[in-house]
Design a protein that fits this description.
Layout (H helix, E strand, L loop, with lengths): L5 H13 L2 H7 L9 H27 L21 H25 L4 H21 L2
């Protein structure tokens, strides 16, 4: 049986994933120099990974018999448009560090839900790998 708090914790993580700057950077009209093409390709992979995290969290919430909360996007991300890709990377690093801290905290709260704990660990590892890929 799932921990009664699992639903709230998973939904909080889902909301935070949806507010992530990773997909916003890819969707925005950032300036990409020739030297930044490789970084942009990496960011596209990270955005796909973020979308997969949202999907997995949603599936886990539904699997425990609940419904995901309404979507929530960070409207402050509108300032990403027309910036140089290198100038937004510190923001991306900070966002990934924030997500890592949230998942670390959540992992301590989901010990009674093995499936949710496994998913949280998997996504946490993915965020750590992503942070290492863009360089901390």
């Amino acid at each position: 049986m799932a921990n009664p708090d699992s639903f709230d914790i998973l939904n909080e993580l889902l909301l935070e994933e949806q507010k992530s700057s990773v997909p916003r950077i890819v969707e925005s009209a950032v300036f990409i120099s020739t030297a930044g093409v490789g970084e942009f390709v990496l960011l596209k992979k990270l955005a796909d990974s973020s979308k997969q995290n949202v999907r997995l969290l949603t599936e886990q919430i539904i699997e425990i018999g609940e419904s995901p909360w309404p979507r929530n996007h960070d409207v402050a991300s509108a300032d990403l448009h027309f910036q140089n890709l290198h100038s937004v990377l510190p923001r991306l690093r900070a966002d990934l560090n924030r997500l890592i801290r949230l998942y670390q905290f959540a992992s301590t709260k989901l010990s009674g839900s093995p499936a949710a704990s496994k998913l949280i660990s998997r996504i946490l590892d993915r965020h750590r790998t992503d942070l290492n890929a863009i360089g901390s």
